[in-house]
Amino acid sequence: xQAAQPASKTDSQxxxxxxxxxxxxxxxxIDSEPDSLSAGKTVSQTDSQLNSRPxxxxxxxxxxxxxxxxxxxxxKRIIYLDILRAIAIISxxxxxxxxxxxxxxxxQLSEFQSLPFYMTAVKSGLYAFSRIGxxxxxxxxxxxxxxxxxxxxxxxxxxSRFIKHNWLSLFITTEIWLAIMFWFLQxxxxxxxxxTKGLQYTLFRFVLTLLFINPxxxxxxxxxxxxxxMYLLIPIIAIAVKQIDGKYxxxxxxxxxxxxxxxxxxxxxxxxxxxxxxxxxxxxxxxxFSMYVVYLLLGYYISKGALAKISSKALWLxxxxxxxxxxxxxxxxxxxxxxxxxxxxxxxIFPMIIAVALFELARRYKDGTAxxxxxxxxxxxxxxxxxxxxxxxxxxxIKPLVGPNIKYLSKFALLESVSFFGAIVIIYLLSRSKILGxxxxxxx
Length: 444
Hints:
Blueprint: H1 35-46, H2 57-73, H3 79-99, H4 108-114, H5 117-130, H6 133-145, H7 159-188, H8 193-196, H9 198-210, H10 222-243, H11 250-272, H12 282-286, H13 291-303, H14 312-334, H15 349-363, H16 371-382, H17 384-398, H18 409-430, H19 434-441
Helix pairs in contact: 3-5, 3-6, 3-15, 3-16, 3-17, 3-18, 5-14, 6-13, 6-15, 7-10, 7-19, 13-15, 14-15, 17-18
C-alpha cells in the first residue's frame, strides 16, 4: 500500500500557509468504530486468543466470568487497547509540545551547549516518548480491524459496510477538520492569504484543501492522508493474513523494516562519525508497501499471541533497552553539528522496539486489576480522536501568549497541560450534542 506522504515534515512549518505536513507528526485515534462494534466484536475474536498457556475447564469458567463482568462494566471495550490508546494520544500531544518548547529539528548543538545535561536528558526522554504514538495507533488498528471477516455483501462485516460505516465517517470528520483548521489559520494569522491575496483566492485554496491538493492546514493532518489510504486496503490485508501463512509476510516485511527503520539509524551513525558515506538501496525506492503496514501487521499478530512465549522479563528488558538506546543515541546527536533526529518521520528501529514491547506487555494486563485506571483510560480512549484534532488548535492558539521568559521545560508543561486538558473540556462540552460528537469527534 502507498500511504499519502507529507510534502514537508518540519515542525516550524506546521502553521504555515503552504502544504506543511510537519515531522511534528501527530495522530488520531485510528479506530473509528463505535464502541459496541469495535470492542464488543473483538472481545470474542481477540481476547480469547490472549492467553499464553492452556487453561483447564475451571480456569476457563473463572476467566469467562471475570471477562463477562469486565465487559459489562466497560461497555464491551478491550481494556488493554484502551490503555495503549490513552498512552498513544498522550504521546502525540507530547510530540507537539516538545517541538514547540525545545530545538528539536534545528539549532541542536547551540541548545545542547546552553542547557545543563540533565535538561538535555529530559528533552531526549520526552522526545523519545513522543515518537511511539503513531506506531501504537497503527498497531491498535491492526489488532481491531484485521481480525474481522470482510464478506457477505451488505451484511455486517462486509467490505461495503466497512467502507460506508468506517471509512466514510472518517473521511467526513477529516473534511470537517480540514475546513476548521483552514479558517483557523486564516483568521489567526495576519499574514495569511485571506489578508494578503483576498477572499476569492482564499476560497479557491479552501476548495483545494478539501480535495487534499496543496492543503493549507496543520502539519499534523498528514496522518489523516495516510490512514484514509490505509483504511481502503484494510479489508484486502485482512483477507490476506487469514488465507496466507504469516511466514510469507516475513521477507517483504523484513525488507521494509531494514529500509525504513534500520537504514536511517545506520546512516545517521555513519554521518555522526564523520564518514562521508551513506548506505542506499534500490529496494527502498521499490516501496513494496507502506512502512506503516508493518505496524498494522505487528498489531494483528501480537494481538493473536505471536509473542506469548516471550517472558515478561525479556519484554521489560527490551522496553528499557529501546528507551535508553533511543535517548542515548539522540543525546549524542544533539552534541554534534548535523541536526540529526532519531525517528524523524518515524524512521527508526527504536520506536518500533519500544512500541512492540509495550503492546505485548499491555496485552498481558488482567482486566479488573485497577478499576479506577480502567475507567479513566476508557473515557480518554473514547475521546482520543477528538483530542488529536482539538489540542493542536488550542496549542497554536495559546503559543503567541507564552512569554519569551517561559521556555524549555516550563513552556512544555504549559503548552501540554493547557492544550490537553483544554481539549478534553472542549470535547466534553461540544459532544453533549450527539451530532457534534459524531461528526466532529467520531464518537459513536
